[in-house]
């Protein structure tokens, strides 16, 4: 069994427009844009990162905004809901703020004793805020969001699967423990992990999802460093998973593999961090390009990447 995974590192999704995406996460949710870069494999598309002040693993939501991308179709084999952590008593503030911003699909529910506010992102993305009374992470307080109600980072992701058994076995191998079950939902958590250490598996009968704008592309799990990552890669490969070689993503190193339920998993290092090429005070301000794409800067800025107005 793997003992080195700490919880979530980041969640990466698809969007249909950079400006709308940026406005939602910074102006509506009050997160900080911590990096403005491009997709390694499609440099004409942004890769935008949002999180706390420094992009602490477990707080980082990232997006590939493909201009005018068609909306995804929800189904199985995907993350259906990405859940953020907020303090106890914060949902009233967020319900009022999100309603004033015209955020669709606002509904209240409760899961495993935690009150939640569900809502949709600009491309129909499934989100929720969960009230947590033991999350000590320091929030970013952008665009007027008070510190006592601000988002702390991720709480969990909810994966929708036709059959949860094989993914449950994988999570257990990765160090997660089953902590509760409610109807068709089973909750797993890593004891002593970071505060983004929870995964829910929901069994549903539905067609397989069709990815597009609003879909989660992959879920990344955090490990401390490259040495630990190699140990995790070896353990997964020895168990039969087809794991990619280690890939340098500038702000972390990554490996990827497809889960039995169809969700793409990544294991990412906490090092070197998002301040490797920008001062902390100015994270996310300048367009940062991977070295192999630096020669494309003029064309990317003039022809492909829409200006983002903060």
TrEMBL record:
Record InterPro entries: Extradiol_RC_dioxygenase, Glyas_Bleomycin-R_OHBP_Dase, Glyas_Fos-R_dOase_dom, VOC_core
Pfam family, one: Glyoxalase
Sequence ranges assigned to domain VOC in this UniProt record: 7-132, 153-270
Gene3D superfamilies associated with the record: 2,3-Dihydroxybiphenyl 1,2-Dioxygenase, domain 1
PANTHER family per the UniProt record, alphabetical: RING-CLEAVING DIOXYGENASE MHQE-RELATED
Name the record gives this protein: Glyoxalase family protein
